[in-house]
Amino acid sequence: MTGAPAIYPCASCPYRRDVPSGVWAAHEYEKLPEYDGETFEQPPRAFFCHQDNGRLCAGWVGCHNMEESLGLRLAAAGDLIDGESYQIALTYQSPVPLFDSGAEAAAHGLADLDSPTAAAVRTMKKLVRSRERRDRSR
Hints:
The protein is an all-alpha fold. Helices cover 43% and strands 0% of the residues.
């Protein structure tokens, strides 16, 4: 499978309700509400995992109605994901609680951006270490 969402959204996924506010840069959170609109209003691109692992973001897939997703359709049509991954995305259900919309996830994420909590700082440090390990292995 090429691009199927992970079983669980990542521990730092901006769509997860249990991820601290302020982990990601403002421009990352500002992308999320764009996928809340009608199909024709949505960005013409799929939302891939911030872990840069080639998978669709499981939080994005779980939060939004993939049957109405322009980005998912175009990813499949453009061979960014295979047919099996497309089908998995259509029926995916997150095993962890997600925000009900991209706007809700963005509002949460932006709330503590200027003064992140200790939990947010720990999450950011884990992300940096993970990306450093990934970069060294490439």
